[in-house]
């Protein structure tokens, strides 16, 4: 999906309206297909940027926020046995999971900007918590290592 062309086709007023719409809480909307597409484009861009980041920087050295240590510590205190190698969506989206995640997420209000905004995961703080853990625990090393090998092969040509 080429988001640049889509955003350019909106014009300045349309892009401004889209940015405003994306800043409102989810409760302000029903299931608007156009809004779903805008969120999907934003999530796609976020995924692409994050993939490029962990491809080029050793994930163990990566710092996603100024509160990484606190996020990681509280995440593993709250979810010591959560498997993050391959995420089960039910562990994030089920009614029981939402009840378990809510206190964890809410403690970062005022600490992590836009902590409850949707990203690739239901909220930004969930994304940070899981990805900080995946980086520290070595689950994103394969992405970085695969890119490093590809870069070395290109350099040898």
TrEMBL record:
Where is the secretion signal located? none
What Gene3D superfamilies does the database record attribute to this sequence? Answer: yst0336 like domain
Q: Which domain of life is it from?
A: Eukaryota
Question: A cellular component term (GO) from this record?
Answer: cytoplasm
Can you give the residue ranges of the Polysaccharide biosynthesis domain? Answer: 35-121, 123-144
Q: Can you name this protein?
A: Polysaccharide biosynthesis domain-containing protein
Organism, as annotated: Danionella cerebrum
